[in-house]
Specification:
With about 120 residues, the protein is α+β, with helices and mostly antiparallel strands. About 20% of the residues lie in helices and about 35% in strands. The strands form 3 sheets. Strands 3-2-7 form a 3-stranded antiparallel beta sheet, with no helix packed on it. The protein is globular.
């Protein structure tokens, strides 16, 4: 994705992906450049595909400092019950945002968006 360089330049690696627990909703945040997802823990929802990155702790602070509101880092519960740090979104930012939960993840949304743009 467009901002993955911010991870890799800090020595982060992507060992895999998984799903969140079924407690989340995913939104396409309007007006963000590049387009950004907003993951909101609602208590009920559907599992959302997420990437699991590993980053050296020494670089974590400089990475978090780059994250613009309404995004932030919080605790995500994964489908297997494990808890990890990951991107969450402030609830206010989802008002008026497209709910893309049914697509199951950000990459699926971006594929659909690119297909729609190619057809126009």
């Amino acid at each position: 994705m467009p901002l993955n360089g911010q991870l890799t330049e800090r020595g982060a690696v992507l060992p895999g992906s998984t799903l969140t627990s079924a407690a989340c909703h995913l939104y396409a945040l309007p007006g963000t450049v590049p387009p950004k997802p907003g993951l909101l823990r609602t208590g009920e929802g559907t599992p959302i595909a997420v990437e699991l990155w590993e980053m050296p702790v020494a670089h974590y602070g400089s990475f978090v400092a780059l994250i613009p509101p309404p995004l932030g880092i919080g605790t995500l519960e994964l489908v297997n019950g494990r808890h990890v740090q990951g991107f969450l979104c402030e609830a206010w930012a989802t008002q008026g945002a497209a709910d893309i939960t049914s697509l199951g993840g950000w990459r699926a949304f971006m594929r659909l968006r690119n297909q729609q743009n190619a057809n126009t």
